[in-house]
From TrEMBL:
<feature type="domain" description="Sporulation transcription regulator WhiA N-terminal">
    <location>
        <begin position="24"/>
        <end position="74"/>
    </location>
</feature>
<dbReference type="InterPro" id="IPR018478">
    <property type="entry name" value="Sporu_reg_WhiA_N_dom"/>
</dbReference>
<dbReference type="InterPro" id="IPR003802">
    <property type="entry name" value="Sporulation_regulator_WhiA"/>
</dbReference>
<keyword id="KW-0238">DNA-binding</keyword>
<dbReference type="InterPro" id="IPR039518">
    <property type="entry name" value="WhiA_LAGLIDADG_dom"/>
</dbReference>
<dbReference type="InterPro" id="IPR027434">
    <property type="entry name" value="Homing_endonucl"/>
</dbReference>
<dbReference type="GO" id="GO:0003677">
    <property type="term" value="F:DNA binding"/>
</dbReference>
<dbReference type="Pfam" id="PF10298">
    <property type="entry name" value="WhiA_N"/>
</dbReference>
<feature type="domain" description="WhiA LAGLIDADG-like">
    <location>
        <begin position="121"/>
        <end position="170"/>
    </location>
</feature>
<protein>
    <submittedName>
        <fullName>DNA-binding protein WhiA</fullName>
    </submittedName>
</protein>
<dbReference type="Pfam" id="PF14527">
    <property type="entry name" value="LAGLIDADG_WhiA"/>
</dbReference>
<dbReference type="GO" id="GO:0043937">
    <property type="term" value="P:regulation of sporulation"/>
</dbReference>
């Protein structure tokens, strides 16, 4: 990417990828946000696509830190793809996030994962890294998080309200 043409969102995501993770609970919470907003998150597969090397590397670092497993980053076209297909690892991940092994159409937000403010912030960082965008501060402030499941969207809005953030939902 040409340094002068990098969007403000890309710069924000790259900066967020440099935020140190001091507590294991925050690493788990950030990874939880990433997985909940992944392209695929279910009992058969977790699949995440990104265009940013920094985001892909952060995700694999978090997976290694939390689950002690190395995951390769695949190059597919213009995208970097992280896939988890191992049944035992998927079961371990679901258990870590407080889900049983029955399939859901959309996984609800487990508020136990984000009880502490530091974990809630880490969770939202993960969500933003995967599905967020932000306008430059010299323009009207505007942050977007795309969510394909309305129930999850409402739960994340509730979390934001608890943190003093007042989002709007557009459908």
């Amino acid at each position: 990417m040409d340094k002068q043409n990098i969007s403000f969102s890309v710069k924000a995501k790259e900066e967020l990828c440099r935020v140190p993770i001091n507590k294991n609970c925050c690493a788990v919470a950030e990874l939880y946000g990433i997985f909940l907003y992944a392209n695929t998150f279910d009992l058969k597969q977790i699949r995440i696509k990104t265009e940013l090397t920094s985001v892909a590397k952060r995700i694999t670092m978090l997976i290694e830190k939390v689950f002690n497993v190395h995951i390769e980053i695949k190059n597919i076209g213009q995208r970097l793809v992280i896939e988890i297909n191992d049944d035992k690892l998927l079961e371990k991940i679901m258990t870590e996030f407080g889900y049983d092994t029955k399939p859901y159409i959309s996984y609800p937000l487990n508020r136990n994962m984000v009880e502490q403010d530091c974990c809630a912030a880490s969770f939202l960082r993960g969500v933003f890294l995967i599905s967020g965008s932000v306008a430059s501060p010299d323009k009207k402030s505007h942050l977007e998080i795309k969510c394909s499941h309305i129930a999850l969207c409402r739960q994340v809005i509730s979390l934001m309200l608890d943190l003093g953030i007042e989002p709007k939902m557009l459908t």
